[in-house]
Specification:
alpha/beta; seven-stranded mixed β-sheet; about 260 residues; binds zinc ion
């Protein structure tokens, strides 16, 4: 784990997971606003830093354990206000337990009391527009600081070419949300897994282009009479280890079935 800064944004850059299955993770603090918390498995690693940072508010981009796993700890130990999309306020109150493969990476998630986002989240120096972007989860939001042209995008980017999806993801909604994001006035993209991209709009457009081409291919194959399993084998021939480890919860077939 390292910490670094860009303008008045401080951030954690971390690599988690075993040898060749490492994932990168970025957590941002801007003007007293922590954007996502990291996972409960990293309490010991992040808590000294969180105690030293001046965290007044926490914005959870979406209700996944690598983004909200330390929200309960922050609530109990720092007392910051925590915000999440209104549709996740109730479930955030409950403790979440996950299957082994998720617990191994990130750990379980304790319940916390969150406030629903309004359209705008203010800090002393900034105003962040909160934009609902369902798809990756139904409660996903991105935060836009239009004066600075910053977009904190949670898991809406990650990579241009998405080849795997969770069982709960909906790619048609993801495409709609990416189209919404592409119209926003931003330049710098702050991604939770791939870091800071200063040509941020180009990254979002590249991801959209990938999905448009993929959608066309899937529609064509469907028209020829193939079912989604057959299409999946053609479009994503390489099977990934995580699909087996997750017992199929994480698979390319959900990309095909939701397009
Ligand atoms: Zn996520």
């Amino acid at each position: 784990m390292i910490t670094a800064s860009y303008e008045n944004i401080e951030y954690i850059e971390d690599r988690v997971g075993p040898f060749n299955m490492k994932m990168r993770l970025y957590i941002y603090l801007v003007d007293g606003l922590l954007i996502d918390t990291g996972a409960s498995n990293f309490e010991k690693r992040y808590s000294p830093l969180y105690k030293s940072w001046n965290i007044e508010k926490v914005a959870i981009t979406h209700f996944h354990e690598d983004h909200a796993g330390l929200a309960a700890w922050i609530q109990q130990n720092i007392g910051a206000e925590i915000y999440i999309h209104s549709s996740a306020v109730d479930k955030a109150k409950l403790d979440s337990k996950f299957p082994f493969y998720r617990k191994y990476y990130w750990g379980n998630m304790k319940g916390f009391n969150a406030l629903p986002f309004s359209d705008c989240l203010k800090t002393e120096k900034h105003c962040f527009q909160v934009i609902h972007t369902p798809g990756h989860t139904d409660n996903h939001v991105v935060l836009l600081e239009e004066d600075k042209k910053w977009l904190f995008c949670g898991d809406m980017y990650v990579a241009s070419r998405q080849k795997i999806a969770f069982i709960e993801e909906n790619m048609s909604e993801t495409i709609n949300s990416l189209e919404k994001i592409a119209k926003l006035n931003f330049r710098h993209l702050f991604c939770a897994h791939s870091g800071i991209h200063h040509k941020g709009k180009e990254h979002i457009l590249a991801k959209l282009d990938y999905f448009y081409k993929l959608r066309e291919k899937i529609y064509t194959l469907r028209k020829s009479g193939m079912d989604d399993d057959e299409i999946n084998k053609i479009v994503f021939p390489k099977k990934r280890l995580i699909t087996f480890l997750s017992g199929g919860e994480c698979s390319s077939k959900y990309i095909v079935s939701t397009i």
